[in-house]
Write a structure and sequence with these properties.
The chain is mostly helical. It has one domain. Helix 2 packs antiparallel against helix 3 and helix 2 crosses helix 6. It comes from Yoonia phaeophyticola. This is DUF5333 domain-containing protein. Keywords: Signal.
């Protein structure tokens, strides 16, 4: 076989492999580490809004959100794809609902701010991601 034919087949295989990986890329909303990280930040924010005695670790939270962006980039998502995900109103609503459902599961009651304090303190004591984002 001629070198040009071998080279052409090699290039075709590389292009097909690359195209396949791009086409098969999971939707960013389905990347569990990124999705869960955003939910944890939302939970910490909600707790800090509802509990006067707990505050968000703002710089830590911003650093963590940047690490989620970096993780998405490392997985091959473009800045445009990440921005589309972050700015999608329906996705924001879905994630807020998931965060509130998890807070309720942990014992936070929408009618009782003290319950948010209890959940926040429990998360801090357990050194969870949510607790790590609070002080």
């Amino acid at each position: 076989m001629k070198k040009t034919t071998v080279f052409a087949f090699g290039m075709m295989a590389a292009v097909i492999g690359f195209a396949g990986s791009v086409c098969a890329q999971t939707a960013l909303k389905d990347v569990q580490y990124v999705r869960d990280g955003i939910i944890h930040v939302g939970m910490a924010y909600e707790i800090s809004e509802r509990c006067d005695s707990l505050r968000p670790r703002t710089l830590r939270g911003l650093g963590f959100l940047n690490s989620l962006r970096d993780h998405a980039r490392d997985l091959g998502y473009s800045d445009d794809q990440i921005d589309d995900y972050v700015n999608d109103r329906a996705e924001k609503d879905r994630l807020e609902g998931m965060a509130r459902a998890e807070l309720a599961r942990l014992g936070a009651n929408a009618d009782d701010d003290a319950s948010f304090c209890a959940v926040g303190r429990a998360q801090m004591a357990a050194n969870t991601r949510v607790g790590w984002l609070l002080r």
